[in-house]
């Protein structure tokens, strides 16, 4: 372990407003308000005499609401992403997806059994009859089947066995399910046509959700890339496995990127243009260039070493809530594991107040960007600790971390590194009594 002691810089007052809490509360309130409107409109439309049909219709209405909410969660809107983070939005998307799956299954089952009770047909025959005779029912059945398939491949066990590209391709069928479900609702939804207010509400809901998706996933990335015209400026090897790529372009001072954020980078070469990979900025944006530093972990990341200056770049973002926007305390602790130092190095460049930086690596030769960290620490009055050694025993356990940072409970903690290390350190922070609101971390997790 090596330590660079320095004099602390004067603290600054962090914001008292918690952006993540504001955004979460806003999303919860939005969903609750729409659920109340859906319930009110359904009650005003009246009830069927069959209780099973009534339950089925409510399940279908709440399923339609959850489907629209799903589109909002994966729209990658900057305001939400900067405050909540793509990883947490993706996690919400996943669990909302399972809720959607069960509401749609309940809708299909209760409606089918309800109508079967009123006829002489068994449930299977009733479903076939509805699909053949009622407009939109067949489309709804296909939509439910697609959601079931997507839900099955999104289960953790199945997800671990599938390549990301395969999972993503299957996931795209969700959009087909959305279209089929909407046309079904328009065709046979009694609540949809019960009143002018109900019709206006549902059209407004779907148009708003669709517009958010198109804006965040298509229009905004296209607009930014047309404005900034990103290109590779230089490729600089850091060591045998790590390379830094410098990106330049036009009007980069207008790009709303912050230290700690990442982009989905697509390098427009003949063999890699179709691959988009999430890489963090390894230096705070300065208005003239961007830098990412990547460790070779596969064919895609290894190929970055061979990029030529002038290569066009299509970047989606910036994304991520791993920024100084979420600070709650004047002092900070930045913990990085391995190449997870890249957003931490950028964050140290931007952050104010006294900071302690802990860089955890297996050996000193793995300490990427450590010379830059040392220079930054000296310039900003931060304390820098390089912690080396094998993963076992844990070099960042409660005793070790408390010895390095005695006032750890009084600091914001920013954490980035390999998942096993992050899990271990999060447990350590809880054991040391660091409040959850002071712990900031983000995992790369993409959806839809």
TrEMBL record:
<feature type="transmembrane region" description="Helical">
    <location>
        <begin position="167"/>
        <end position="188"/>
    </location>
</feature>
<dbReference type="GO" id="GO:0051537">
    <property type="term" value="F:2 iron, 2 sulfur cluster binding"/>
</dbReference>
<dbReference type="Pfam" id="PF00175">
    <property type="entry name" value="NAD_binding_1"/>
</dbReference>
<keyword id="KW-0274">FAD</keyword>
<dbReference type="GO" id="GO:0050660">
    <property type="term" value="F:flavin adenine dinucleotide binding"/>
</dbReference>
<dbReference type="GO" id="GO:0016491">
    <property type="term" value="F:oxidoreductase activity"/>
</dbReference>
<feature type="transmembrane region" description="Helical">
    <location>
        <begin position="95"/>
        <end position="116"/>
    </location>
</feature>
<dbReference type="InterPro" id="IPR050415">
    <property type="entry name" value="MRET"/>
</dbReference>
<dbReference type="InterPro" id="IPR039261">
    <property type="entry name" value="FNR_nucleotide-bd"/>
</dbReference>
<feature type="transmembrane region" description="Helical">
    <location>
        <begin position="27"/>
        <end position="48"/>
    </location>
</feature>
<keyword id="KW-0411">Iron-sulfur</keyword>
<feature type="transmembrane region" description="Helical">
    <location>
        <begin position="136"/>
        <end position="155"/>
    </location>
</feature>
<keyword id="KW-0001">2Fe-2S</keyword>
<keyword id="KW-1133">Transmembrane helix</keyword>
<protein>
    <submittedName>
        <fullName>Ferredoxin reductase family protein</fullName>
    </submittedName>
</protein>
<dbReference type="GO" id="GO:0016020">
    <property type="term" value="C:membrane"/>
</dbReference>
<dbReference type="InterPro" id="IPR001433">
    <property type="entry name" value="OxRdtase_FAD/NAD-bd"/>
</dbReference>
<keyword id="KW-0408">Iron</keyword>
<keyword id="KW-0479">Metal-binding</keyword>
<dbReference type="InterPro" id="IPR017938">
    <property type="entry name" value="Riboflavin_synthase-like_b-brl"/>
</dbReference>
<dbReference type="Pfam" id="PF01794">
    <property type="entry name" value="Ferric_reduct"/>
</dbReference>
<keyword id="KW-0560">Oxidoreductase</keyword>
<keyword id="KW-0285">Flavoprotein</keyword>
<feature type="domain" description="FAD-binding FR-type">
    <location>
        <begin position="225"/>
        <end position="325"/>
    </location>
</feature>
<feature type="transmembrane region" description="Helical">
    <location>
        <begin position="200"/>
        <end position="220"/>
    </location>
</feature>
<feature type="transmembrane region" description="Helical">
    <location>
        <begin position="54"/>
        <end position="74"/>
    </location>
</feature>
<dbReference type="InterPro" id="IPR017927">
    <property type="entry name" value="FAD-bd_FR_type"/>
</dbReference>
<keyword id="KW-0472">Membrane</keyword>
<keyword id="KW-0812">Transmembrane</keyword>
<dbReference type="InterPro" id="IPR013130">
    <property type="entry name" value="Fe3_Rdtase_TM_dom"/>
</dbReference>
<dbReference type="GO" id="GO:0046872">
    <property type="term" value="F:metal ion binding"/>
</dbReference>
């Amino acid at each position: 372990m090596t330590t660079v002691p320095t004099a602390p810089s004067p603290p600054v007052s962090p914001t008292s407003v918690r952006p993540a809490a504001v955004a979460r509360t806003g999303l919860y309130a939005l969903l609750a308000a729409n659920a109340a409107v859906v319930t009110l409109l359904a009650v005003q439309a009246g009830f069927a005499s069959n209780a099973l049909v009534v339950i089925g219709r409510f399940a279908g209405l709440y399923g339609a609401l959850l489907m629209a909410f799903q589109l909002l969660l994966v729209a990658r809107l900057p305001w939400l992403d900067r405050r909540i983070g793509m990883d947490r939005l993706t996690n919400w998307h996943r669990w909302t997806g399972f809720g959607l799956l069960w509401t749609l299954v309940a809708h299909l089952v209760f409606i089918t059994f309800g109508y079967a009770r009123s006829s002489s047909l068994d449930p299977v025959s009733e479903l076939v009859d509805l699909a053949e005779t009622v407009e939109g029912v067949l489309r709804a059945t296909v939509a439910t089947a697609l959601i079931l398939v997507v839900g099955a491949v999104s289960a953790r066990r199945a997800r671990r066995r599938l390549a990301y590209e395969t999972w993503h391709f299957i996931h795209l069928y969700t959009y087909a399910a959305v279209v089929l479900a909407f046309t079904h609702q328009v065709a046979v939804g009694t609540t949809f046509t019960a009143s002018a207010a109900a019709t206006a509400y549902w059209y407004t809901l779907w148009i708003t959700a669709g517009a958010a998706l198109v804006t965040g996933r298509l229009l905004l990335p296209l607009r930014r890339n047309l404005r900034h015209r990103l290109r590779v400026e230089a490729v600089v090897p850091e060591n045998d496995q790590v390379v830094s790529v410098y990106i330049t372009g036009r009007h980069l001072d207008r790009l709303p990127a912050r230290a700690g954020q990442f982009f989905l980078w697509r390098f427009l070469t003949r063999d890699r243009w179709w691959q988009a990979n999430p890489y963090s900025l390894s230096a705070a944006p300065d208005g003239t260039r961007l830098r990412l530093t990547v460790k070779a972990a596969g064919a895609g990341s290894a190929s970055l070493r061979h990029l030529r200056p002038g290569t066009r770049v299509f970047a989606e973002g910036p994304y991520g809530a791993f920024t100084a926007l979420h600070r709650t305390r004047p002092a900070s602790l930045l913990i990085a594991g391995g190449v997870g130092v890249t957003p931490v190095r950028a964050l140290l460049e931007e952050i104010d107040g006294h900071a302690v930086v802990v860089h955890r690596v297996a050996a000193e030769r793995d300490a990427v960007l450590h010379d830059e960290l040392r220079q930054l620490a000296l310039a900003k009055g931060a304390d820098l600790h390089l912690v080396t050694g094998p993963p076992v025993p844990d070099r960042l356990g409660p005793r070790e971390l408390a010895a390095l940072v005695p006032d750890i409970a009084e600091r914001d903690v920013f954490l980035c590194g390999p998942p096993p290390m992050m899990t271990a350190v999060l447990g350590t922070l809880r054991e040391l009594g660091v409040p959850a609101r002071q712990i900031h971390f983000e995992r790369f997790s993409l959806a839809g």
